[in-house]
Amino acid sequence: MKVSINQIITEGLRCPNSIINFKDRDSGAALNLLQMPNATGKTTIIKLLAATLSGQIRNWSPNKIKSFKSRDNIFDGEFSLTLSIDANNNFSEIKFIVRFDFEHGKVDFNTKRSQEAGEEHGWHPPRELRQYITEGCVDVFCFRGDKVQDLIDKHKEDAEVTIKAFFGISDIDSFLQEIKTHFRNTVAQGSSVNNRAVESKKILLGQWEERFKLLKGKFDDKTTEKTRVENELKDMKEARGGVIAAQENGAINQLAHSKAVKDAEMNVQNSSFECWSALKDPFLISTKLTENLYLIRGILEKMKLPGGSRTFFEEMIEKDENCICGDELTEAKISHIQASIESYLGNDEINIVNQIKEEIKIAHNNHNNGDNLKSLFSDLKKSVTARDLARIDELEFLQDAKDQSGTENREIFDNYKAKGIEDDQLERALKTLSKDYKVSAPNQSNLKSCNSYIAAEGMITQLSNELGVMSNMVHDVEANALLNKVILSARKNSLEKIKDRVKILTNEKILESLPAGSEIEINKFEKYLQLGWNGAEQEEGSGAQNIIVAYSFVRAVLEEAAIEFPLIVDHPFTNVDFPNRRYLGSKLTTLMHQFIGFLIDTEREGFLQGVNESGESVRYLSLFRIEEQNKVFIDKIEKLEEKLYFKSSNGILCYDKKFFIENKMGKY
Fold it and tell me: For the chain, what is the domain count?
């Protein structure tokens, strides 16, 4: 199944009123590039598109809905999204229409299943499409530039969350939760035993259930808040980047400082790993230990041990008629040999002992390991110092950039810093609320000492099992444990197999997309994509490599799910140098059947040349408001043929390639 975006209509929203028509490969252009001046509504369009497609816009709060209101004094608005669907050459079209009531903070969601059909209230995508346009799935192919980093960040789980969303693993988690709830209710309500111990256990179970609800509610609230803060941070980072890019060599210097910090942090990580690996060597405990072990090894060598293997005697009994002395192997002799050979080492034991001997020899020959360890710790100390200096240099650069800015722009730097502190605080709170540990026996009656919903849920499971046993429901307890074990095992195996398959597919697509000799691949697929080459790990690649990895991952996920979606990206080439932007521009049209990129000025140079060199047809779109500061654009467009632009009450959309190439719109 192939899904394309045909049209977006906006009216009465934070972006200009417009009708934007897109193309895909079948209709003449796989690549759609949209440029807009600062504060015109790029982010607004992407957020509305994603939330409408997934239907999540129906769950928005009144305040969030009101935040999308146009700057004009109006009380309603509309956003519509038209999709074309090709299911085995059966073509259809579906349209989602969202009408905004800004006065009351409400939306009215309607679906039109075909051009001929009327509107139906609610979100009604085709059944075969529904599972692929949940919020988690839409985030896979509709993302901002930061998503690239999130997939390879070892502190995040976006890559694994993608797999869970697209292949139904998240549904298994929901199913397991329902089983747990049903079992707890069965145990709590189904007991025929009535004594003080059982009643006390029920009361304690009820208290832990209330504690769990409280902590889980806090976790969900903090998670929602964290998502909001992260999105605000992204917006602020883009705004700060735009201010810096406006300064002389600002973007280049910022990229250099950012790279220096990341490289220094990677060196600390590598040095730490080397030190930790060295500390695992037991021979570093003391030189005397190594000397004594080497002495024992010498004695074993002198005695030719372990040299006698019982395998020799076992084979002799089985295959030979005579003993090694020449006498016939009688039943009595065979019985005697069989009774004696247990004292000899078997092949497995011999291999182990020989390995130990070899390790002792290596350790003795490398008697200066202690000096080597000192050297490793010295290198670690140097790398930590270098990292700290790189961070200081970056902070000084940002402070200088702030000092060169106007009063309004300085607030952008301050707000970003404050929002970063808020984000860190939320991160710590979420870690506390989701810490995985077992509540100790003394604290099982002290519920307030538990601040993790996972630990609280563990207590509920434990108490439910104990209550089941006390209530003569042992069979139910065992059946529930077996069912959970089977489902968890199937879930784990399925997740690992899908991740392995997606890793292979992603690496194939990386190989297709990058120039020959590019040493980057996915080494391991954990909760994130661990990059590296030939077994050696690295934190990240170049800007271009990271982008290709992200786009290849999206393509692999969609291919494995047997569905095609457009790739919709805000800032598609952030942190990519000129030569690589040019290369990516020449390759981009081959990656997806439809690519919609919201381009900024700093990404144009190099990229547009590459796109032109590809020879592919491209849809160029320029969207801006009708206002005095854009008069120069308006004058140029009104000289074009009318079919090359669309003019609304407050905005103009231009489809002219020449206008797009010759006019820059905004830095961020």
Answer: 3
Q: Do 7 and 125 have their domain in common? A: yes
Same domain assignment for residues 152 and 128 = no
Task: Let me know if 323 is exposed, middle or buried by CB neighbors in 10 A (0-12, 13-18, 19+).
Answer: middle
CA dist 223 and 229 (Å) reads 10
Strand runs labelled E in 540-657: 567-570, 595-599, 618-625, 645-647, 651-654
pLDDT digit string, tens, across residues 345-363: 555 656 666 666 676 676 6
State the CB neighbour count (10 A cutoff) for residue 602: 23
Domain co-membership, 100 together with 11: yes
Residues 600 and 651 in one domain: yes
In a domain, 198, yes or no: no
Rounded Cα–Cα distance for residues 340 and 335 (Å): 9
Domain-ending residue, one of 352, 372, 392: 372
253 within 8 A of 404, measured Cβ to Cβ:
no
Taking the CA atoms of 581, 587, 591 and 593 in sequence, report the sign of the dihedral they define.
positive
Residue with tokens 């192919």: 141
Report the CATH number that the domain containing residue 122 is assigned in CATH.
3.40.50.300
Q: Which two tokens stand for residue 258?
A: 């950012």
Cis ω before 306 (30° cut-off from 0): yes
Residues 12, 104 within the same domain? yes
Instruction: Provide the 3-class DSSP secondary structure of residue 576.
Output: coil
What's the pLDDT score for residue 668? 45
Residue 622 Ramachandran class (φ > 0 left, ψ -120 to 50 alpha, else beta): beta
For 303-335, the DSSP string reads TT-S--BHHHHHHHHHH-SB-TTSSB--HHHHH
Domain that holds residue 544: 142-185+493-562
Q: Is 199 contained in some domain? A: no
pLDDT digits (tens, 9 = 90+) for 366-393: 655 556 677 888 899 999 999 999 999 9
For 278-329, the pLDDT digits (tens) are: 776 666 656 666 666 767 767 666 555 555 556 667 777 777 777 777 778 8
Whether 603 contacts 571, CB under 8 Å: yes
Give me the residue label for tokens 């779109």: 621
Classify 18 as helix, strand or coil: strand
Residue 83 — pLDDT band, cuts 50, 70, 90? very high
Sheet with 529-533, edge to edge strand ranges: 521-525, 529-533, 536-538
Residue 643 lies in a domain: yes
Q: What is the pLDDT of residue 566?
A: 92
* Helices vs. strands in the chain: H and E counts, helices first: 22, 16
Q: DSSP secondary structure string, 162-217?
A: HHHHHTTHHHHHHHHHHHHHHHHHHHHHH-----HHHHHHHHHHHHHHHHHHHHHH
- Residues 557 and 594 occupy one common structural domain: no
pLDDT digits (tens, 9 = 90+) for 250-284: 888 988 898 899 889 888 988 888 888 777 666 66
69-76 contacts, C-beta under 8 A, 24 or more apart: 69/12, 69/13, 69/14, 69/100, 69/102, 70/12, 70/13, 70/14, 70/650, 71/14, 72/12, 72/650, 74/12, 74/102, 75/101, 75/102, 75/103, 76/12, 76/100, 76/101, 76/102, 76/103
- Whether 497 is covered by a domain: the verdict is yes
